[in-house]
Write the structure tokens for this entry.
Amino acid sequence: MPISERVAQLGSGVFSRNDARKLVYVQGGRGSGGLNERPALLDLSLGSTDLPPPPAAIEAMAKRLHHPASASYCLHGATLPFREAVAAWAWRRFGITVDPETEVQLLVGSQEATAHLPLVVTDPGDGALLLDPCYPSHRGGLILASVRPTLLPLRANQGWRPDFGHLPASVWDQLKLMVLGFPHNPTATTGDQSWLDGAMARAIDHDLVLAHDNPYVDLALDGEAPALLRHPDWRRQGIEFFSFSKSWCLGGYRLAFAIGAAPLIAGLRQLKSVVDFNQTLALQAGAIAALEQAPHWPQQLREVYRQRRDGMVRALLAAGWSVSQPSMALYLWLEVPPVAKGRGLDSEGCCAALLEATGVCLTPGNGFGPGGEGWLRLALVHPLPELEAAAARMGAWLGQL
Ligand SMILES: Cc1ncc(COP(=O)(O)O)c(C=O)c1O
């Protein structure tokens, strides 16, 4: 059976590997008849929140579901009310005027956009810059487009700041695309506007597209998240992706949008018109309601995540794990403990062993690129008492190693 080389290159993906391990853990408990003896699975491996979306959004969707047009294919023209609501949001959020016709695009997710954009910007064999570590779809999108990735390492001792000077001008000149994302998953670093400004300067100097994946724009806990739209030249060769998954807890509904340079939006729209139609008008009605009626939602989330972050950092330190306080919500980024390294466990081995022994599931850092090796990502997606229970199990496991 012919299967493309590019699909082979995609590999199994860290979330799929973890999924398989979780299944084995849960089934193992059943098979042994010892379900009660095994600690219940505590899944902290996905950035999929337990917090609820705004009722106004769900009500708007439910109401609109009964409308016959919601069952029809939704072509681009019908997304105008959504795009207008996004343009109004951009004005309120960043004080910028955006043309809903040429500069806004509805997306199925910011993940979808990072996977599709390379096909819009590059040709096979071109080069593109990725952060290492980075969200898996950033790399996956390059593989799908047969693009050569250049990795820009992020390092703990540099505060995970991208060092654009690390690359010589000759390398920059070969790049067509740079994909960044701050606040940053998985290192839980908010980043700084000056980092993006530096990236934009390089993009302009070397004539490449800067794509900024920004689903966490509302989830900085200390200070303000950077945004490409704050840069005066974003229209020149920039595009930024925002999502309803994190700010409004609507991850399962698959709603996001891009704001960017008109030729990039036009190209993405053209590409997407081949791939699929748009989300139903019912989902779009919910998204509009979130933007217009629940602008306060992210603020509430931040308060909850702040308590979880502070409580979990305390609990982990008390349990003997080394962890520093992240500046954004949702994740902690933990170094594989030296004692686990001493036992020959890399990030994947450490996650597997921890899950097997305790039922606590984290994400191995290597799933985000080679630069994530030696690290583990923990998502703050359970109430604090459950997170504290996870920390206690993790501490007991460390003690036994
Ligand atoms: C950096 C980054 N981009 C994209 C996504 C996916 O977002 P969406 O649900 O909008 O596809 C995530 C989800 O965790 C993410 O961390």
Observations:
- The chain has a mean pLDDT of 95.
- The pocket of pyridoxal-5'-phosphate is lined by residues 47, 109-111, 135, 181, 185, 213, 215, 243, 245, 251, 256 (CB under 6 Å).
